[in-house]
Design goal:
mainly alpha, 0% strand
Length: 191
């Protein structure tokens, strides 16, 4: 009887020691994965702000381009009116005619310059729109990585309660590794 009791006590002691080692691994692993998840959250929030900033910039540049196109149209209409008057021969006085010709030339040059400004603003708006799209993809990738890490925290935490700790720890490590890959890809995706 003494041998059986001694054997059971020895077996219980081994189980207790292995459980104690597992209990130390799980919290450390969960803490490390939690730091990864926190970094993923930080970077994804930063990317979402960058997306909004780029989108707002694109909208602003598009509005400015629209204003410049309207100014271009206005100048072209005035140019065409003066040109029509000149073609009709209405200003008969040579001095007045010369002022009309000069005004038409100035409006023609100014309208082309305004049109170029509008096109440049429109081009910049498209650049910001493309930048926002890249940043949005980076944001989404970072969010996926963060989600993998958060699920890994739960799985690793369950390992502290389970009898088969290594199964949970292995699954948690695989999930956190996958999350880490997504976090790294997402971080460099928009750079």
């Amino acid at each position: 009887m003494s041998e059986a009791v001694h054997s059971k006590l020895s077996e219980a002691n081994e189980i207790h020691e292995s459980a104690g080692r597992g209990h130390r691994i799980a919290p450390v692993a969960a803490a490390i994965i939690a730091v990864l998840a926190a970094l993923g959250t930080l970077f994804s929030h930063h990317r979402s702000i960058m997306v909004l900033t780029a989108k707002n910039g694109a909208i602003l540049k598009q509005a400015q381009a629209s204003d410049r196109f309207n100014s271009y149209e206005s100048k072209r209409i005035r140019y065409q009116l003066i040109q029509a008057l000149l073609d009709a021969g209405l200003p008969q006085d040579p001095g007045t005619r010369a002022r009309f010709v000069k005004a038409a030339e100035n409006l023609d040059a100014a309208s082309l310059e305004t049109q170029n400004e509008a096109r440049e603003l429109e081009r910049r708006s498209m650049e910001l729109e493309n930048q926002a799209e890249e940043l949005l993809q980076s944001y989404e990738t970072l969010e996926i990585g963060t989600t993998f890490c958060e699920v890994a925290i739960v799985i690793v935490s369950l390992s502290a309660l389970a009898r088969r700790q290594w199964i949970f720890l292995t699954v948690g490590a695989a999930l956190s590794g996958t999350g880490l890959v997504f976090l790294v890809v997402g971080f460099f995706q928009a750079h």
